[in-house]
Specification:
The protein is of the alpha/beta class. It contains 21 helices and 18 strands. The chain folds into 4 domains: 4-118, Rossmann fold (3-Layer(aba) Sandwich); 121-301, 3-Layer(aba) Sandwich (Rossmann fold), CATH 3.40.50; 308-384, Helicase, Ruva Protein, domain 3 (Orthogonal Bundle); 497-537, Arc Repressor Mutant, subunit A. The chain has helices spanning 12-24, 35-44, 61-70, 86-94, 107-118, 121-132, 137-149, 166-175, 197-202, 219-222, 238-250, 276-281, 287-293, 308-325, 334-342, 348-362, 370-376, 404-433, 497-511, 516-523, 527-537; strands at residues 4-8, 28-32, 49-53, 77-81, 99-102, 156-159, 184-188, 227-231, 252-253, 262-263, 267-272, 296-299, 331-332, 367-368, 393-394, 399-400, 445-448, 465-467. A hairpin with an 8-residue loop joins strand 9 and strand 10 (262-263). It starts with a strand and ends with a helix.
């Protein structure tokens, strides 16, 4: 039986386009142009998914979601709107929306999102097993370990770089366990807003906060009896780590705004690409939680470490996309195959899959030569690797650097301190020599000139130090010009890190005419961090 989808969109052209996309994927689709008619359809028919615009001629998507929650209808809900805003996104997520999609809506993004929400468990089980089980020794070792620990309820920590298939290992554990007939719930800890973390994990009671118009279960309740996969566990907010530890130890949790404890019958599988020992040393992750999760570690090798699997995975992906797009499968020549194996694949399996899909769609010739393949492979990643601080330590003082920006700040401050020490040294030496050793008439001589570093335009460089060679017996320097400094007067300039950061943010916003996304990209920080800093410094 086909899955049924309801599209609530007043733009008839867009509604028809999205309907055609979904119908080609095998879904049954109904449409509505406003909220009242959407409610009427929902009363008459059952739907497996709702795609709704926020702004409608009558009503809006937020009110429709509120009505669905009041009616106790458990239907996945996706908000789509050209009026994308943080406020609407947070409100929709708080109310139970599965995702937030900004217009223009792209075909691949929409279809992938819909498939993920409506994916049958049996299909997931088959595909995950087929995807991960390969021939390379390291991949086989990780697979065997996953199947070995699956029957127990022991906690597992999966380690590996981005794109290596950590979630596929977690699904393998679930589908080989006694919980295979129960839900498998995956949560990306790095994508959860800090203020919604507790509600996301534990749910909330009606009236717990503004917008909480009904009781809502969290991830632990959704995964009851099954497996909860915590992806990117290293990015979980520190205060949430203690709450998670308590749930793991006590086996109970309490929804936000509720006084009733609930039992957490859940098997925890976590994954991360971070160096957890380093995160613990820097105070970003609780050591006790780490040891609680790391009962059995499984290391997933990168694609470079399992080169035997590259050609096999390419063939599998080519076959899958040929079936999906109803076209002949692409094939590699021997030279192209050698090029494929020689590439370092910094994006691992995910990158290989994306490139295979690109070639399958774009190329008309189904035999892929090295010249064709070269057009889709980015520049060699090994030529673009930049040095970084090993272990995150600076000198022997235990100073850690969280970002490249902080390193630049420290470099500037160290330069300022060095210049200050040099001023003191020069003044001391000249005072000791006395006037007898110096010429009686000369023009000011610049003994030191600081080089111009254009690291951060917002921070002015220190001025050139000009010192007169004429010194009186009292130790003071004769003032022969406006640029001659008194050797006995010294003022150390200080610069607040917060002030520098504030000025950098202000100038970045001015450069990009207030566009925060571009400003964040220019500053090499996330948009979320930029929003927080803008509010903190009063730059709104």
């Amino acid at each position: 039986m086909k899955k049924r989808i309801l599209i609530v969109e007043d733009n008839i052209t867009l509604s028809q386009i999205v309907k055609d996309w979904l119908e080609r994927e095998g879904y049954a689709v109904a449409t509505s142009i406003d909220e009242p008619y959407a409610r009427k359809l929902l009363r008459k028919e059952s739907f497996d998914l709702i795609l709704s615009d926020v702004r409608l001629p009558q009503g809006d998507g937020i009110h429709l979601l509120e009505w669905i929650n009041k009616e106790k209808r458990d239907i996945p809900f996706i908000i789509m709107t050209e009026y994308a805003s943080v406020t609407d996104a947070v409100k929709a997520i708080k109310m139970g929306a599965k995702d937030y999609l900004a217009k223009p809506v792209f075909h691949e993004q929409l279809v992938e999102m819909v498939k993920e929400l409506l994916k049958p468990v049996s299909t997931v089980r088959c595909k995950e097993k087929e995807l991960f089980k390969r021939t390379s020794p390291k991949a086989m070792e990780a697979m065997n370990m996953a199947e070995l620990v699956a029957p127990s309820d022991i906690s597992v920590l999966i380690l590996g770089a981005n794109g290596t298939g950590k979630e596929s290992v977690a699904r393998t554990i679930h589908f080989h366990s006694n919980r295979k007939d129960k839900p498998f719930v995956a949560v990306n800890c790095g994508a959860i807003p800090h203020e919604l973390a507790a509600s996301t994990f534990f749910g909330h009671a009606k009236g717990a906060f503004t917008g909480a118009d009904a009781d809502k279960g969290g991830c632990f309740e959704a995964a009851n009896g099954g497996t909860l996969f915590l992806d990117e566990i290293g990015t979980l907010p520190y205060d949430m780590q203690s709450s998670l530890l308590r749930v793991l130890q006590e086996g109970t949790f309490m929804p936000v705004g509720s006084s009733v404890e609930r039992v957490a019958d859940v098997r925890i599988v976590a994954a991360t690409n971070e160096n957890m020992e380093k995160a613990i040393a820097e105070g970003r992750f609780r050591e006790d939680l780490y040891y609680r999760l790391n009962t059995v570690p499984i290391k997933v090798p990168s694609l470079r470490e399992r080169s035997n699997d590259i050609a096999l995975l390419f063939r599998k992906f080519a076959s899958d996309f040929a079936e999906k797009y109803r076209m002949p499968a692409i094939q590699l020549t021997e030279d192209a195959r050698a090029m494929l194996l020689a590439y370092p694949w910094p994006g691992n399996v995910r990158q290989l899959k994306n490139i295979t899909e690109q070639i399958s769609i774009i190329e008309t010739h189904r035999e892929i030569t090295p010249a064709i393949l070269q057009r889709y492979l980015p520049a060699q990643a090994m030529d673009n690797r930049l040095p970084m601080l090993f272990g995150g330590k600076a000198g022997g003082g235990g100073k850690t650097f969280e970002s490249e920006r902080e390193i630049l700040y420290q470099v500037l401050f160290d330069m300022r301190r060095d210049v200050t020490e040099l001023k003191k040294l020069v003044n001391t030496l000249m005072a000791e020599k006395g006037a007898s050793t110096m010429p009686t008439s000369a023009t000011p001589v610049a003994y030191f000139q600081e080089p111009s570093y254009d690291l951060m335009p917002s921070v002015p460089a220190s001025p050139t130090i000009n010192i007169s060679p004429m010194v009186h017996p009292t130790g003071s320097v004769s003032r022969m010009g406006d640029d001659i400094q008194d050797t006995e007067e010294y003022v150390e300039e200080t610069l607040s890190l917060d002030e520098v950061e504030k000025e950098m943010i202000r100038k970045a916003l001015e450069r990009h005419h207030g566009k925060r996304k571009n400003a964040a990209k220019d500053l090499k920080i996330s948009e979320r961090t930029l929003y927080r800093k803008i509010k903190e410094y009063g730059l709104e």
